[in-house]
């Protein structure tokens, strides 16, 4: 896979402090059965970190391409943007040559942090408010950011569908999309819609990379987005549908807790790489089979 519109290539994993030792044998340009092409961190967890952890982190950023997936931007919050945090993120990205900055299309603060990702109301007013804030941040950073389609469990003040809300924000702000296929699957169960139909309505040309993760089955009709379990077959299948509809895209495995032994964790990264290879081969064979003039 090689496409210059993407900030990274291949398959990646989120770097957590608990993984810094176990993953230290990896190198992005090594040829091994456990190759990781890029890594992702939450900048809030690493800004101004020094000492042993800071040195270890620098060793990773010198070996791997990195992207940032923020936790605290709170893009839909009624409170003012946290410009001190945004300045710190800009400096952090420059210091470590971070390729891309993404955040959640949610909010997590009002007068104080709520310690959860809350859904933005699907309204025209919320679209305009959110777009203005995204544009301010993009202007300050001097680059496009990407927003992630989020999991949610209630839709307060809903005036339009989730897909229409997401597409309007992306179009009006001209930002990128961090495509989370697990969130689509979780929402499709919780809010009773067709996951693949939803996926196909997203603007594939705006995707900067993809998240895939596991979740918790609370009940037959309730899934909880936890990033604390193995990826299940329907989510893998939805990832493959994303590749089919939009082409192969860089994809990151999210695992935030209940982290398994490193070989088990990397086996899921290898599964991503195998799916990417299989899909690229299928596309190549399809092109070969087309009659002349129809490529």
Question: Would you mind describing this structure in some detail?
Answer:
The protein is an alpha/beta fold. 39% of the residues lie in helices and 18% in strands. It has helices spanning 51-63, 83-96, 124-141, 162-173, 181-190, 195-200, 233-246, 262-289, and strands at 11-14, 38-41, 66-69, 101-104, 106-109, 113-119, 146-148, 176-180, 207-213, 216-219, 222-224, 251-254. The strands form 3 sheets. An 8-stranded parallel beta barrel has the order 1-2-3-4-7-8-9-12. Helix 3 (124-141) runs parallel beside helix 4 (162-173). 37% of the residues are buried. The model has no long low-confidence stretch (mean pLDDT 90).
Strand content: 15-25%
Q: Helix share of residues? A: 25-40%
Counted up, domains total 1
What is the terminal-to-terminal distance? 19 Å
How many DSSP-defined strands?
12
**CATH fold assignment:** TIM Barrel
Order of helices and strands: EEHEHEEEHEHEHHEEEHEH
Which blocks of ≥5 consecutive residues have pLDDT under 50? none
| Average pLDDT taken over every residue | 90
What is the overall silhouette? globular
Q: Strands across the major sheet, in which order?
A: 1-2-3-4-7-8-9-12
State the helix count: 8
Short description:
The chain is an alpha/beta fold.
Topology:
Layout: E1 11-14, E2 38-41, H1 51-63, E3 66-69, H2 83-96, E4 101-104, E5 106-109, E6 113-119, H3 124-141, E7 146-148, H4 162-173, E8 176-180, H5 181-190, H6 195-200, E9 207-213, E10 216-219, E11 222-224, H7 233-246, E12 251-254, H8 262-289
Parallel strand pairs: 1-2, 1-12, 2-3, 3-4, 4-7, 7-8, 8-9, 9-12
Antiparallel strand pairs: 5-6, 10-11
Helix pairs in contact: 3-4
């Amino acid at each position: 896979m090689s496409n210059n519109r993407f900030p990274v290539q291949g398959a990646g994993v989120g770097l957590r402090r608990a993984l810094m030792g176990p993953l230290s044998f990896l190198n992005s340009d090594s040829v091994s059965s456990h190759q990781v092409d890029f890594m992702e961190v939450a900048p809030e967890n690493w800004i101004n970190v020094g000492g042993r952890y800071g040195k270890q982190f620098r060793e990773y950023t010198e070996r791997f391409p990195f992207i940032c997936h923020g936790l605290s931007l709170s893009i839909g919050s009624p409170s003012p943007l946290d410009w001190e945090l945004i300045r710190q993120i800009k400096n952090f990205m420059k210091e470590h040559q971070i390729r891309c900055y993404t955040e959640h299309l949610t909010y997590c603060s009002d007068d104080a942090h709520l310690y959860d990702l809350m859904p933005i109301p699907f309204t025209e007013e919320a679209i305009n408010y959110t777009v203005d804030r995204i544009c301010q941040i993009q202007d300050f950073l001097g680059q496009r950011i990407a927003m992630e389609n989020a999991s949610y469990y209630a839709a307060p003040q809903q005036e339009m569908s989730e897909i229409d809300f997401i597409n309007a924000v992306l179009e009006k702000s001209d930002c990128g999309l961090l495509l989370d296929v697990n969130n689509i699957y979780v929402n499709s169960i919780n809010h009773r819609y067709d996951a693949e139909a939803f996926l196909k309505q997203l603007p594939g040309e705006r995707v900067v990379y993809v998240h895939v993760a596991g979740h918790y089955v609370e009940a037959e009709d309730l899934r909880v987005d936890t990033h604390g379990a193995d990826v299940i077959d329907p989510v893998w299948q939805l990832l493959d549908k994303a590749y089919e509809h939009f082409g192969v895209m860089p994809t990151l495995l999210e695992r935030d807790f209940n982290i398994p032994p490193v070989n088990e964790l990397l086996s899921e990264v290898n599964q991503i790489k195998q799916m990417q290879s299989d899909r690229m081969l299928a596309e190549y064979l399809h092109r070969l089979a087309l009659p002349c003039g129809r490529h």
